[in-house]
Design brief:
The complex is a heterotrimer of chains A (about 325), B (about 300) and C (about 260). Chain A has 14 helices and two strands; from the N terminus they run ααααααβααααβαααα. By secondary structure, chain A is mostly helical. Chain A has a two-stranded antiparallel ribbon with strand order 1-2. Chain B has a two-stranded antiparallel ribbon with strand order 1-2. Chain B is globular. Chain C has one domain: Rossmann fold (3-Layer(aba) Sandwich), CATH 3.40.50.300. Chain C is about 35% helix and about 25% strand. In chain C, helix 3 packs across helix 4, helix 3 runs parallel beside helix 5 and helix 5 runs parallel beside helix 6. The longest helix of chain C is centred in the last third of the chain and has 18 residues. Chain C starts with a strand and ends in a 10-residue tail after the last helix. The chains are: A mainly alpha (about 325), B mainly alpha (about 300), C alpha/beta (about 260). Chains A and B meet through helix 5, helix 11 and helix 13 of A and helix 5, helix 10 and helix 12 of B.
Chain lengths: ~325, ~300, ~260
């Protein structure tokens, strides 16, 4: 029951945070929540289906730019629309890309996803008339629940209503993912991760389920991407760069892949650690690289593994 | 017209010569250790920066400019020794792990090396561009080509032949091919894997650092050069086929020249075309031109 | 005729693994395939289960051509199999393994938001099979922690959970102690009756088991069917006894 207690405490803390914490830290929670949504989805692909994508940031880009387009070019400022359109677009892009990619495994899957990710990045970068090139596109302050809050100063908006909106999205996303993971569908995913040959002999099509996982995780990534835009007010092509995808995998591993809350923990740790390290020394990559190396070598189950001492599924070469 | 074509082709071949070195390093490591070294770009960058510093030191000490390519290449090769440290100190801990973790470890290496380079050399680009034309230029079919480019192309060709000779004529080469083919059997025959892995990985990094060093007079050493190069190198090995030296050679030529053509025709295309080809290759013929069995 | 193979040939490059194998399985039969190692038994099983496409010949299940259709399609058609090298889901529990099979059978695999725990049909279906195979007590144990015999049982049980019409067992008692072998076979037979299985085909080395349970025995040698007859006829067939069983040793005990 300690799990539930921790969850309740975390929930209460999240709710109270903007009221008690300094604004700076509250604002830091915003990318954490956005990445939280992304990682909830990525975990389905990485943790539950065993596929490492080096192009997942593509879908973050799709979601972010969808939001920018809607507010800037089309004039639709409702965050609900932004998230919805992002999710739909993410799914539409993921379906053909996924259909192609899931037929391959391990390194070939990684390479294909990397190629697609970089393809999108190049598209965002080079077709500047459409996308704003390397400067990116601005994202105008969205309306929340139909209310135009343009009168409120930016930080108050972000640390207040926007914060709670993102929190709500994160909670909804988490509940949906929880149900997915504990559904008959989720069980089938676990089978294809554990033993694809046996899964197929039981009538579970490995490529089909991987495809489902791919598309769902892309939808989550797009939703997270839509949430990433408003705080900075700008989206740019680096969102889709392959190292961004690498960081996502890093975050998942940091928190503990294959566990439900691990990725959320990983996003939290990554964002805060990055902020902390950067304030002390500019060489955060050196430290993060070392952390990743340490995790890979000594603690592959990530932070969750340290807390719960559960081994992740099949860490060694099978 | 011919002048333009020759320019495009020659600059493409020059780029291919550099790409080949990095890709060859990737291939030999993948072929033997089955690890895709994402950090090959970082070693390339390292070689570039070390090369610049070496040339700087050389000219500062009064060395004749027309000899600059010697300290450049020597430094590039020498810093490849860092591969031993990386292999023994980091990589060997994950040999028995899932590919994913090996890949992630090389990603960690990228992060660490990027900042290590930044720490040592700062963020401003470094170059030796003044020395680029020290060997003058040559007219080929109406186009003007720096002699330095020809030197590098020649050197790369020589190295390609050297690698070929190494693989087919020496005992070490035989061991490499045997291990790439069937690791368990090679081990059973008494091959000491630890030494082979250390040597192979170092060879791989040395090729990468050399490539980085040699490109320096033509471009500046910049902090993103590693991350950008890895994508090209990856395109080379996909098209050429994972683990194949011939693949590295042909793949490098294809990517180098195609990129040059794309830039001259429609600059927006540049890497776009390459990525499309990579995707097409992965889908239609995953093992590339010369690779072994696919996914 | 529920399963029929005619003139099946399979080449691996130059090597001929199956050289014109024909067989026919009727509903209600328990057929054993025997033969020395290298006789082509595994290849035959893989061809019969649609994993391998034969180089020549036909394979029909309930009249449908099933050459190379793959395990997923075959499972939906009503054929299941177990594996020689036991295949389990290491990190799933016994119950979850069986649930997965039932989910697949009932087509609940696309229910994303339904609760697995509250899926009555799946829970009952899985528990039923667990009971049939005597795994109820261990149903929460992780598959990788089971003793070898139970792993085998789970492999077979999950195949049974698909309620197939025909099942192929690849050495169901290999790696299991002699004492447990009959136990497994009895469970198998009882389970088959319960779920209305129409035919069982097994590859088996243990002659006691073969002779104790088969209606018909097919002896394979160097890719060809040497004999296809009742146990009594096989016993009397010198060629089979000679080469497959071993003349001197045959006294009902396996070599």
């Amino acid at each position: 029951m300690t799990g539930r207690v921790v969850l309740a405490l975390a929930g209460a803390a999240a709710l109270a945070f903007p009221l008690v914490a300094p604004t700076y830290h509250t604002l830091l929670m915003l990318p954490f929540m956005a990445y939280g949504v992304v990682l909830l989805g990525l975990n389905l692909l990485f943790g539950y289906s065993g596929l490492v994508s080096f192009g997942h940031a593509l879908f973050i880009g799709v979601g972010a730019y969808a939001g920018a387009f809607l507010t800037g070019r089309v004039g639709v400022r409702h965050l609900e629309a932004m998230v919805l359109v992002a999710v739909v677009l993410g799914a539409l892009v993921a379906m053909p890309v996924g259909a192609l990619c899931v037929r391959y495994v391990k390194i070939y899957f990684g390479m294909l996803t990397l190629a697609f990710g970089m393809l999108f990045y190049t598209f965002l970068l080079k077709f500047y008339r459409l996308t704003g090139g390397d400067e990116g596109m601005p994202v105008l302050r969205p309306f929340l629940l139909g209310r135009d809050l343009g009168a409120i100063p930016k930080t108050d908006y972000l640390a207040g209503p926007y914060y709670y909106y993102c929190l709500a999205v994160l909670v909804v996303a988490a509940i949906c993912m929880w149900r997915i993971v504990h559904s008959p569908f989720g069980l089938c995913l676990k089978t294809i991760r554990d033993n694809p040959v046996k899964a197929e002999s039981l009538g579970v099509s490995v490529t089909r389920y991987r495809w489902y996982a791919f598309v769902i995780s892309a939808m989550y990534a797009a939703a997270g991407g839509a949430l990433l835009g408003p705080p900075t007010g700008n989206v740019d092509p680096t969102l889709a760069y392959w190292t961004h995808s690498g960081n996502l995998v890093f975050m998942t591993l940091l928190g503990g892949f294959g566990s439900f809350f691990g990725p959320l923990l990983g996003a939290f740790a990554f964002i805060y650690l990055q902020d902390f390290v950067m304030s002390v020394v500019p060489y955060w990559r050196l430290i993060f690289g070392a952390i990743l190396a340490i995790i890979v070598i000594f603690a592959p189950a990530g932070l969750m593994g340290l807390f719960t001492r559960r081994r992740p599924a099949e860490v060694s070469r099978g | 017209m011919t002048q333009h074509v020759v320019n495009v082709v020659m600059s493409g071949v020059f780029h291919a010569a550099i790409l080949f070195l990095v890709a060859a390093g990737l291939q030999v490591v993948f072929g033997v250790q089955k690890i895709f070294n994402l950090a090959c770009g970082s070693f390339y960058a390292l070689g570039a920066y070390v090369g610049v510093s070496a040339v700087q030191a050389f000219t500062d000490a009064g060395g004749p400019p027309w000899l600059f390519v010697l300290p450049l290449a020597a430094a590039g090769l020498a810093v490849g020794a860092v591969g031993v440290i990386v292999e023994r100190g980091l990589l060997r801990f994950v040999y028995d792990r899932d590919e994913t973790f090996q890949l992630l470890l090389t990603f960690a290496l990228i992060l660490m090396m990027e900042d290590a380079i930044r720490l040592t050399w700062g963020t401003a680009p470094r170059s030796t561009s003044a020395l680029y034309l020290v060997y003058g230029q040559v007219r080929i079919l109406g186009a003007i080509v720096p002699v330095y480019n020809l030197i590098v192309i020649g050197a790369s060709l020589a190295i390609a032949l050297g690698i070929g000779w190494l693989l087919t004529r020496t005992a070490f080469g035989r061991i490499i091919r045997a291990t790439a083919d069937n690791r368990e059997m090679a081990e059973a025959l008494g091959v000491d894997m630890r030494r082979v892995y250390a040597k192979v990985f170092t060879l791989g990094t040395a090729l990468g650092t050399l490539g980085g060093a040699l490109v320096i007079p033509a471009t500046a050493a910049m902090s993103e050069m590693g991350i950008e190069l890895i994508v090209e190198a990856f395109a080379v090995v996909v098209i050429g086929g994972l683990g194949s030296m011939r693949g590295a050679f042909v793949g490098a030529l294809i990517v180098g020249v195609l990129r040059s053509v794309a830039i001259s025709v429609y600059p927006e295309l540049e890497m776009l075309l390459i990525y499309l080809i990579v995707i097409a290759v992965l889908v239609l013929r995953p093992r590339g031109l010369f690779g072994g069995a696919a996914a | 005729m529920i399963l029929q193979a005619e003139g099946v040939r399979k080449f691996y490059g130059e090597f001929c693994a199956l050289d014109g194998v024909s067989l026919a399985i009727k509903p209600g039969e328990f057929v054993s395939i025997i033969g020395p190692n290298g006789a082509g038994k595994s290849t035959l099983i893989n061809v019969l289960t649609g994993v391998l496409r034969p180089s020549a010949g036909t394979v029909r299940f309930k009249g449908r051509d099933i050459r190379g259709i793959g395990p997923v399609a075959l499972a939906r058609l009503g054929m299941a199999r177990s594996f020689q090298l036991v295949q389990i889901f290491p990190d799933l529990s016994v119950l979850e393994t069986l649930q997965a099979a039932v989910v697949s059978r009932l087509g609940h695999g696309t229910r994303l938001f339904a609760s697995l725990r509250r899926d009555r049909e799946v829970q009952e279906g899985a528990l039923e099979v667990a009971e049939l195979f005597g795994l109820s007590e261990k149903r929460h144990a992780l598959a990788k922690e089971l003793p070898q015999g139970d792993k085998k049982l789970l492999d077979v049980a999950s195949a049974f959970a698909l309620r197939p019409e025909i099942i192929l067992l690849d050495e169901p008692t290999s790696g299991v102690s002699t004492a447990d072998k009959t136990g497994i076979m009895e469970i198998l037979v009882a389970a088959s009756r319960r779920i209305g299985l129409k035919a069982i085909i097994q590859v088996e080395h243990d002659m006691d088991i073969v002779f104790g349970y088969s209606d018909r025995i097919i002896a394979l040698h160097q890719g060809r069917v040497l004999a296809d007859a009742t146990p009594a006829e096989i016993q009397a067939d010198e060629r089979v006894v000679d080469m497959v069983i071993g003349r001197k040793q045959f006294s009902g005990r396996p070599t």
